[in-house]
Design a protein that fits this description.
This is Membrane protein. With 559 residues, the protein is mainly alpha-helical. It is built from 23 helices and no strands. Helix 3 runs parallel beside helix 7, helix 15 runs parallel beside helix 18 and helix 18 runs parallel beside helix 20.
Length: 559
């Protein structure tokens, strides 16, 4: 499952040329502070392709759960345990670990060659941080195993089968250690300009979960899926180790550990780690709130929320791949003091990810029932489950732009590798709204009320983070960003209406989804062109000759 060295954008001939120009050996690959748009586009496309594959397998995992167990007490019990894996993935792979370590590794790479005595800051950073991290993660995993009954009672006090959820939670607790090590590897590789192996981790995890479901589902029930989470975490580490070893093994030997006040320790101060972890936990607490409130609803409500979120979050996950690729560039620009380049990078990313997720929102709003029917209405998953999940998904999708902007904006706050508490305050304000609105709305609208409260809370957080940029973060020009984002919002509204009208006559779910996707995409892109979102006309005009040359060159080689 290792990544071929030549397939990664960071291993391209251009990267080799950069290394040679800098006098750096191939094993000492660094991520340049200024990279070409071609490199970023290639890295984003490769990462997105692997992420799409992982997301498709994630849907396959949910389909397997729905097929074997439907949407009832068993899946509710597993999904309470899955909260541990979700939290670990967010805290240790997708967000927390990346926010801390990508700027730290980027700063270490920027200082390479400038450290007195010729020692390598990257090796020093690993030596100072990895052993402590392993001990902390192992202790946390053991604590969750021991306290699993209490954790289940806190997350879902009204769950019908708490003992099953406890068994599953003890199995998934191991992922705290394995996901943490996988996240460490991912952060180090991304800072070095390598994105393929980190993007393949979700693919590895879902392959193992699906395999254990089919292999052990009949005998172990949902415990088989929980075992798959434990084994999948090990494979997530294994797919990254070869690529990481190639980059670290050829670097100079480790220098003596820096003094507590030295530059190499500065990116990993306790205040920075605490501010990042609390922010990510506060954001993940939205899931805890939803599971807690939904546990009092009829059996299956937690499952309906879970399936709705998994599908709705696909556009967000894909759009944020742009930020995953550009975050090391942003951190390197901040480390080098180039705030103008950092501001342009941030503003461009906000508009681009906003456009991408709004296209996905329009598709979901237009075709929600048909999408759920196509994906899940098999086996024990009934038409009533489809209707409940689709209606919940449409409401949840209203907050998807807020979720995406929060994911993009928070990177600018932590890109300098310094502690900042404003993101935690903004997230806490949104969580308070989520809790209050959810407690009020759940008795009126059920799962849809929980989804609406989530959308309201995260939208408030996104607004606060956007307004808080400047002295606390990279100085983003807020009016310009808001004006640019308003254009694709209008395009998405029109496209969603057009897609719903075009898909309605088709009774076949595949046909309805296909027609809806095509019509939404056509209308959205036409309006993006007409409104000239993010200088779309100029970008396309520049890209067209390049694409024509690539096609012509390919045809000539084909002869």
């Amino acid at each position: 499952m290792g990544t071929a060295h030549g397939c990664d954008p960071g291993d391209s001939p251009a990267a080799d040329g950069t290394r040679r120009a800098a006098g750096t050996a191939p094993g000492q690959e660094t991520f340049p502070g200024t990279v070409s748009g071609r490199f970023l586009a290639k890295a984003t496309l490769i990462s997105a392709a692997l992420s799409v594959s992982g997301a498709v397998l994630g849907l396959g995992r949910d389909q397997a759960l729905a097929h074997f167990f439907g949407a009832g007490a068993d899946t509710d019990a597993f999904l309470v345990a899955w909260t541990v894996a979700e939290t670990a993935a967010t805290l240790l792979i997708d967000a927390g670990m990346a926010y801390v370590l990508v700027p730290a590794f980027s700063a270490a790479l920027a200082r390479r060659g400038r450290v007195p005595g010729g020692g390598d800051p990257v090796r020093a950073l690993i030596a100072a941080s990895l052993p402590r991290l392993c001990l902390g993660l192992a202790a946390a995993a053991l604590a969750i195993m021991v306290g699993a009954p209490l954790l289940v009672s806190l997350l879902a006090p009204s769950l019908p089968d708490a003992s099953l959820a406890t068994d599953c939670t003890r199995l998934t607790a191991t992922c705290v250690l394995t996901f943490g090590l996988a996240g460490y590897c991912s952060a180090a590789l991304r800072a070095h300009g390598s994105f393929v192996a980190p993007a393949a981790t979700s693919l590895a995890l879902n392959i193992v979960i699906i395999a254990t479901l089919f292999g052990l589902g009949d005998r172990w029930g949902v415990r088989g899926a929980a075992l798959g989470v434990a084994l999948g975490g090990c494979l997530m580490i294994a797919v990254q180790l070869p690529s990481l070893w190639r980059r670290i093994a050829g670097e100079p030997g480790p220098q003596p550990l820096p003094a507590p006040g030295g530059d190499d320790r500065r990116p990993l101060t306790p205040a920075l780690v605490t501010s990042v972890l609390l922010f990510v936990l506060c954001r993940q607490a939205q899931v805890f709130v939803e599971r807690h409130l939904a546990s009092a609803l009829p059996a299956g409500a937690i499952s309906h929320l879970n399936y709705a979120q998994k599908v709705a979050q696909l556009p967000m996950s894909l759009s944020l791949m742009v930020c995953v690729v550009t975050f090391p560039v942003l951190a390197r620009a901040v480390a080098e003091g180039d705030l103008r380049r950092a501001r342009e990078r941030t503003e461009g990313d906000l508009v681009l990810v906003g456009c991408l997720v709004l296209l996905g929102i329009a598709v979901i709003e237009a075709c929600a029932p048909q999408i759920i029917q196509l994906l899940f209405q098999h086996g024990a998953f009934t038409a009533a489950d489809t209707a409940a999940t689709a209606s919940t998904m449409r409401v949840y999708t209203l907050g998807l732009l807020g979720h995406t902007l929060v994911g993009a904006l928070v990177r600018s706050y932590f890109s300098a590798g310094r502690a900042t508490w404003y993101p935690l305050g903004a997230m806490a304000a949104g969580l308070i709204v989520n809790i209050g609105a959810g407690a009020w709305a759940v008795g009126i609208w059920g799962a849809r009320g929980i989804a609406a409260a989530n959308a309201a809370g995260i939208t408030l957080t996104a607004l606060l983070l956007l307004l808080g940029t400047g002295a606390r973060s990279i100085p983003v020009r807020v009016p310009r960003v808001v004006a640019e984002l308003a254009k694709p919002v209008r395009a998405a509204l029109c496209a969603a209406g057009a897609g719903a009208v075009c898909a309605r006559p088709f009774t076949s779910p595949p046909a309805a989804v296909a027609v809806g996707c095509v019509s939404v995409t056509a209308v959205f892109l036409a309006l993006v062109w007409a409104l000239d979102v993010a200088d779309a006309r100029t970008v396309l005009a520049r890209a067209t000759p390049v694409a024509r040359r690539i096609v012509t060159r390919g045809m000539s080689h084909g002869r």
